Structure formats: C-alpha cells, structure tokens
Fold this protein.
Amino acid sequence: REAASLLRAESSPASRAEGLRRVADCYYRARDHKAALATYDLLVRAHGDAPQAEGAAYERGKLAMELGARKEALRHFRYFLRRHPDSMLASEASFRVCRLLYDGGQHRESLECITHLRRAYPDSGRVGESHMLEATIKRVALHDCAGAIAAYDAYLSTPGAELERQAREWREWCAAELRE
C-alpha cells in the first residue's frame, strides 16, 4: 500500500522512484525475478538520476544473471559501470563483467577486464578472486601453465585466500605439466 501511494501520478519524481524500488524489492523477495527486473528497468529508465537508480541499475545485472541471461547481464553491468564508476558496488560489478566474459568464452577480453579491475579498484576484495579467475583462464582456456602458476602465486599471497587448497592443487598440476 505504501509503495502504491508513492507511485501515484501526483507524487514527486523522487517518491515515484522510491515506490518503484520498493515494488521491485517486493518482487525480488517473492522470487518473481522477471517482474523485479522489469520494475528495476522501469526505475532506471524513468528516474535515471534518482538516488535509487544506482542500486536498481546494479540489481538489473544480478537478476539477469540469476535468470541465465548472460548477454543482458553483461549489458546491465556495463551500463552500471558507465553511470556509477565510483559506486561502492563498482568493483563487484566489474568482477561480474570479467566473469561473464569468461563464461561466454571471451577469454582475452576477460583478462583485459581483470587488468582493469585491479587498476580501477586495487583495494577491492575481488582482486584476490581475480587472480583465481586469471589462473583458470590461463590454465583451462589458453593452456598457459606458466602464466597460471604466476596467477596462482598471486592468489596465494592474498590474505585470507578462501580457495587456498584448490589453488595449491592446480598450481602443482601446472608445475607437473611444465616438468613433462
């Protein structure tokens, strides 16, 4: 009801933007991701300069990923990064772009994205994970074990590396490949 009252034609643009955000959030909590995505999209298109548009622009990418729409998610995250490069969510959006590029078989573009992520957001928690993604690309897609080992070493030097065991195992696998 409160969201509906915010959406009335006589409401201010800021109130309508807030109403759309609340409606989209309700759809999301109800797991109606298509409706949530459509509502966030409407918020961004109709109220792109409202404070709520930043979060809505990011959520569009997340929802598109959840719906399996990789190209749409990529488009939404890139839009978000163009509009909100200094957002607290920017490093997360950037990492998701890198991952989506990898998932789409765009390995070189993903590596370029990783380089950009590290330069643009050097203090991000996603930098460590970017080393694992880089190692995976180099080991699996490019068959570059020497490059993968360097990336695994960079990951292992990251404080709190959650995938330490896997990184060490794959590093050793690559080292054995190079010895053969």
About this structure: The two ends are 68 Å apart (CA to CA). The first helix runs from residue 2 to 6. The mean pLDDT is 92.
